[in-house]
Write a sequence for this structure.
């Protein structure tokens, strides 16, 4: 055979080799990308919290302690009425401040107010006007507004209110949510790799705004799915020679102005603990703490032996710890009253059921998760948790809503020893709110059962539970009972995975 015949394979190489090599590199690239996605998702769940986040302040003797409430109810003719006190007090406190106003507000816009024919109070404009007016009246006033980027749809829309505040000399800090942990690693792991560094702009939107009118960029939608927030609703001001604080569940959001809400007001050193927690949010967002604002946290106060009301500031997961301690510490003969917008946190659900089993008088008042700014909801997660509690024998009632939401977050433990423990603020009882994903603020009050704040809390819950004074506020469990196995599975999956809006 001619020698040239041996060269056939060299002259005609295997044509399939390059495609095989390309497919091999493609598989390796996909595997590396997948591992990077998973690694980033795990990191974003477990990364270190910024300094000053997730704190429990000392329990301090406080003055001027009161529970403020917003209540919407119907009369015998089914006419809706609304009594609001939270933002009336907010505006009063801002209007008298002479040195400092620091507010941290989650929803600060009028999105959703066009969704129905209801008449809404223009809370966002009222708050902006109050801050601007006070800054003009007292030019030396140090005024700071901290807020969540949801109010600009994550940079995709301009906010006329925020612009007006800046123009008036109010320091506006938009929270940098990228510094927080993520409750939704399946999406956020990818978003931090591909998109977070792209930023956003508010000029060339081409997609519908998911929250209201106007158009936004695709980057706004991508940021929205991270599902974390600065969910706080706080205010700290000087009041005479003292400091006064509000810790609330209420937002300065027009479409939320008919919601039921609560707020705790208190004066003294605990207000400075709250101020210190807000300084941490400014720092994590890259802002500078304005000169002239207090920076030192005062020493713990001596416990008052007369048992005057004492207040402890709780943020993030320390709220969960306080709630669990209150529930686990309740004994037979105690009463435990809970009113909350979202209730889904598994440890807390189990703790409440266990408290009932050991003889604690438990009552749970829940929003039916029926309405959200003109849109109907499917009842998840409250109806599924309510079914579980009802089966365990826990008395459950629903807020009888008519478009508004029962937006309070309140736990009241009344002891057989004549003392109470009250926890109220911004945090819903969910994984996202209580496990160091959102920024949250609540306050814990310890007092005698005959203290004014204790009687206010007891009267608020009793009227809501029993429809006192002829006010239609709540309704029986069967009205919104839901034993759907599918929705129960969806609740448990979405709570565990973070793929939820609650």
């Amino acid at each position: 055979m001619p020698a040239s015949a041996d060269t056939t394979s060299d002259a005609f190489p295997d044509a399939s080799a390059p495609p095989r090599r390309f497919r091999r590199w493609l598989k390796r690239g996909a595997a590396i990308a997948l591992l990077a996605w998973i690694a980033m998702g795990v990191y974003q769940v477990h990364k270190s919290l910024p300094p000053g986040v997730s704190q429990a302040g000392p329990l301090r003797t406080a003055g001027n302690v009161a529970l403020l409430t917003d209540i919407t109810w119907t009369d015998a003719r089914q006419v809706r009425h609304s009594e609001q006190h939270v933002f009336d007090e907010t505006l009063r406190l801002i209007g008298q401040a002479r040195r400092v106003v620091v507010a941290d507000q989650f929803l600060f816009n009028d999105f959703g107010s066009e969704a129905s024919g209801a008449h809404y109070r223009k809370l966002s404009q009222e708050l902006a006007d109050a801050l601007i007016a006070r800054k003009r009246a007292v030019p030396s006033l140090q005024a700071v507004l901290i807020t969540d980027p949801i109010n600009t749809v994550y940079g995709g829309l301009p906010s006329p209110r925020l612009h007006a505040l800046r123009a008036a000399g109010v320091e506006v800090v938009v929270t940098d949510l990228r510094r927080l942990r993520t409750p939704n690693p399946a999406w956020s792991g990818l978003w931090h790799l591909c998109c977070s560094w792209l930023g956003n702009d508010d000029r060339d939107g081409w997609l519908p705004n998911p929250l209201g009118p106007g158009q936004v960029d695709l980057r706004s939608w991508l940021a929205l799915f991270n599902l974390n927030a600065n969910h706080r609703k706080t205010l700290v001001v000087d009041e005479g020679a003292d400091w006064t604080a509000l810790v609330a569940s209420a937002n300065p959001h027009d479409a939320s102005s008919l919601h039921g809400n609560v707020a705790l007001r208190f004066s003294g050193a605990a207000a400075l603990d709250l101020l210190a927690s807000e300084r941490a949010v400014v720092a994590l967002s890259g802002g500078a703490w304005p000169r002239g604002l207090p920076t030192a946290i005062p020493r713990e106060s001596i416990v008052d032996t007369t048992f005057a009301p004492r207040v402890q500031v709780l943020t993030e997961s320390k709220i969960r710890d306080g709630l669990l301690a209150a529930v686990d510490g309740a004994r037979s003969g105690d009463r435990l009253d809970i009113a909350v917008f979202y209730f889904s946190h598994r440890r807390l659900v189990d703790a409440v059921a266990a408290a009932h089993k050991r003889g604690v008088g438990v009552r749970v008042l829940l929003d039916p998760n029926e309405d959200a700014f003109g849109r109907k909801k499917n009842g998840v997660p409250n109806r599924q948790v309510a079914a579980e509690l009802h089966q365990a024998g826990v008395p459950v009632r629903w807020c009888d809503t008519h478009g508004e939401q029962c937006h309070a977050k309140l736990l009241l433990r009344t002891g057989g020893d004549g003392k109470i423990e009250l926890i109220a603020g911004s945090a819903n009882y969910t994984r996202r709110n209580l496990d160091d994903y959102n920024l949250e603020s609540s306050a814990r009050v310890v007092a005698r059962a005959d203290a004014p704040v204790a009687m206010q809390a007891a009267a608020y819950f009793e009227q809501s539970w029993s429809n006192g004074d002829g006010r239609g506020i709540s309704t029986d469990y069967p009205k919104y009972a839901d034993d759907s196995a599918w929705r129960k599975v969806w609740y448990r999956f979405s709570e565990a995975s973070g793929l939820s809006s609650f």
